[in-house]
Amino acid sequence: MNRKLILSAVFFSGLAMSGSLYGQIKKLKTVRAEVIREDRDLEKAKYDIDMVMENSETKDNAAAWGWNGIVYGEIANLDDTSALRIALDPDKTAAYKSALSFLKFYAYSEEQQEQLDAKIYAQTSLPNTIINNFNKGVLALSGPNKFTEVKKYMEAVEKLLPYDVEQFAKTRGITLESTYYTTWTAAYMDTLVNEELVYLEKLAAVPTYMKADIFIRLSMIYNDKKEYERALEYLEKGKVKIPQKASDFLEQQINIELSRNNHAVILAKFTEAIANNPDNANYYFSRGVTYHQLKLNELEVQEAAFKNGDKVAPSKYSFKQCLADYSKAISLDNSNFDALNNEAVAIFDSANFMYKQMTRVASVDYDRYKTSASGLYRLALSKFELLKQSGYLKNEDYINLLKDMKTCAARTGNMEERNKLDELIKSEKAKLDAAGGVK
Question: Which of 155, 236, 360, 424 sits at a 20 to 30 Å CA gap from 86?
Answer without folding.
Answer: 155
